[in-house]
Amino acid sequence: MKDQVLCVDYFVVQADDRPGIGADLGKRLAKEGVNLLAVLAFPSSAENPEAFTKAARKLGLQTTGPKLAFLIHGTDKPGAMAEILDRLGGRNINVRAVCGVAGGGNRYGAILWVAPADVEAATRALGAQVAAHHHV
Question: Is the full-model pTM beyond 0.90?
Answer without folding.
Answer: no
